[in-house]
Amino acid sequence: MDTDLTRPSSVAGADPIDTLPPSFRWGVATSSYQIEGAVAEDGRTPSIWDTFCRVPGAVHNGDHGDVACDHYHRMPQDVALIADLGLDTYRFSVAWPRVQPGGRGPANVAGLAFYDRLVDELLGRDVEPWVTLYHWDLPQELEDAGGWPNRDTAYRFADYAELVFAALGDRVRTWTTLNEPWCSAMLGYAYGDHAPGRRNLGDGIAAAHHLLLGHGLATRRLREAARSPIELGLTLNLSTADPETGSAADRDAARAADGLANRLYLDPVLRGEYPQDVVADLAAEGVRIPVEEGDLDVIATPIDVLGVNYYFGQLHSGVDEQGRDRDDDGKPVRRVVRRDLPRTAMDWEIVPESFTDLLVRLHRDYPGTPMVITENGAAFDDKPDADGFVNDDDRVGYLTEHLRAVARARAAGADVRGYFAWSLLDNFEWAYGYDKRFGIVRVDYDTQRRTPKRSALWYRDTVRRVRGQR
Ligand code: IFM
């Protein structure tokens, strides 16, 4: 492993980033299936991603997480990297099938021991652990029993959350129940791009509701079990949905997109209700959210922190290329407009201004909930030199502009308390396999050598500067 963090990196002078306060939390994020590997070790059973990766054509290049970054065996070195960057927080996720194989029953002591060691290693290096309980690796046995569209999965999740908390709750202060439930529900069950690869809108919406129910149930269980102050929350992937023009059709397309991607999750958690316009849109598709009595009270159990993941903005149009506002089936046209903007290797538009708009909007529409940016970052086509070093100016530019966007949102009143770069390491980027690299540290998958990129050095220096350490 190359831990030489002494190479020079340039840090600009006066900058909005410098207005971020000393209490601001600085971190990096990862998730279990994307980095751990060791999928059949110490009693771990398959998750829906182990299964999905074996479906021909499901994942780019037939890639899978069997080895990934081999983090399961290299964890102390990876923690050292985080500590050497001077970061105060590490956000990681626990693999449900590792600690409770099959998704029900007693804890798997050997699997839990890995996270026990990880937490101790972090604390020993003055890095605070931030646990995400669910970052998409549902035990396959629960999928076989119906998966997230099955209401029982929410209760299984609450049991699992309690079991992890019993093991780590004495040392871990901050707990995120779910990462990006929109992705689990819609990419997994409605659009089929992610595990388990189902394609049914009704299943997607049922999954969304049961994920949120699981979040609420787990939040209550953890709050009851806590013996010392804890911070509870969930992480949503949020974006802006702007209309291309002021026309009624474009504004309605933007409303619908915002509703399905953002408000369907924000409103029940932070207001205790589903947005009626989205309920009506879904009804027009013959889909009903399977809410039972009392569910919304559970889902709206107060949280302490909202995790915000932001990557890109989007512009929406309600007319097609021919200017029609209805498609051949008579349904309203809903179209994302491709703008002439710089893009990342994911083909995602780079729009830092939208990040500011999003955070200010969250502050305005859902006041009173502190926010932490639990993910932000970019994949680019990295070109390592002969030593494996990547001079990733593009990533440094992306991170700089997005941190400035956060600082501007704070200046406008948004209560943002921390920022975690996605991701510490290049890793398994789901359906894109290992082709897309988001890490600030390069991973050579042949040798598992880690090499901090220029963005890692820039991040280290920026954090030091903002903290006034030099
Ligand atoms: O890699 C993912 C992560 O698992 C969830 N949020 C978005 C990242 C980049 O696509």
From TrEMBL:
GO aspect biological process, one term: cellulose catabolic process
A Pfam short name: Glyco_hydro_1
UniProt keywords, alphabetically: Carbohydrate metabolism, Cellulose degradation, Glycosidase, Hydrolase, Polysaccharide degradation
Binding site for substrate: Q34, H135, N179, Y311, W422, E429, W430
PROSITE patterns listed in its UniProt record: GLYCOSYL_HYDROL_F1_1, GLYCOSYL_HYDROL_F1_2
Documented EC number(s): 3.2.1.21
GO terms for MF: beta-glucosidase activity
Membership in a protein family: Belongs to the glycosyl hydrolase 1 family.
Protein name: Beta-glucosidase
